[in-house]
Amino acid sequence: MIKLKVCGMREEKNLKQLIQVGPDYIGFIFYKKSKRFVGDDEAISFIKPFNIQKVGVFVNEENNEIIKHAKALDLNLIQLHGDESPDQAEELKSLGLKVIKVFSVNNQLPSNELDRFKKVSDYFLLDTKTEAYGGSGQRFDWSVLKDYDNEIPLFLSGGIGEEHLGEISDLSKSLNIHAIDVNSRFEITPALKNIDSITSFAQKLKAL
């Protein structure tokens, strides 16, 4: 079964509503330039006790800062969304954190970069290439996925909506899709999600 990750959460009431929907992963963005930046640890300390798979999303952050946030908020996975090195990912894994390494895709897969991170990543996330490090609501050309070798399970991201579920179902027959990552297409305003829309998407994804 393909799992669901909802990224870019911040508001407590909205998050509690989302948890009732039952996504497999919830992402919190620690990149200060993002419209969905969570703020400091104290501002979102309410997430700590929730029994959910919490993903911390970081862009070119030092590991000491990442580890500080992970400990303060009981993050389960670290999503590296910038130009991080394999050594940085390896250090995080050595501390018991699972690593999702993000690769920005336009019209071809960055095969050499993928190879460099295979031994130090639990998952890869493929997102549409933009200057803003995700959350663009734009989809990349999925035809490039035919070149993926399936060694590392994928999170598939980038402008995904309900209209793409049929194509996702077809792709999953030959592609190692672990989860679908949704964000801006399901927002009322940045970091505030439309729970009804996510509920509908989650139910249809489970039915694939």
Features:
TIM Barrel, 23% strand, globular
Structural overview:
With 208 residues, the protein is α/β, with parallel strands linked by helices. The chain has one domain (3-7, 26-182): Aldolase class I (TIM Barrel, Alpha-Beta Barrel), CATH 3.20.20.70. It has helices spanning 12-21, 63-73, 86-94, 111-117, 165-171, 195-206, and strands spanning 3-7, 25-29, 53-58, 77-80, 98-105, 123-128, 154-156, 177-182, 187-189, 192-193. The longest helix is centred in the last third of the chain and has 12 residues, at 195-206. The termini are close together. The mean pLDDT is 94.
Mean pLDDT: 94
Principal-axis shape: globular
Distance between the termini: 8 Å
State the helical fraction.
Answer: 25-40%
CATH superfamily: Aldolase class I
**Largest sheet features:** 8 strands, parallel, barrel
Strand content: 15-25%
Mind telling me which CATH architecture this is?
Alpha-Beta Barrel
Strand order of the largest sheet: 1-2-3-4-5-6-7-8
Q: From the alpha-carbon coordinates, what is the Rg to the nearest angstrom?
A: 16 Å
Q: Would you tell me the structural class of the helices and strands?
A: alpha/beta
Run of helices and strands = EHEEHEHEHEEHEEEH
- The low-confidence parts are none
Number of helices: 6
CATH topology: TIM Barrel
**Strand elements, count:** 10
CATH class: Alpha Beta
How many domain regions?
1
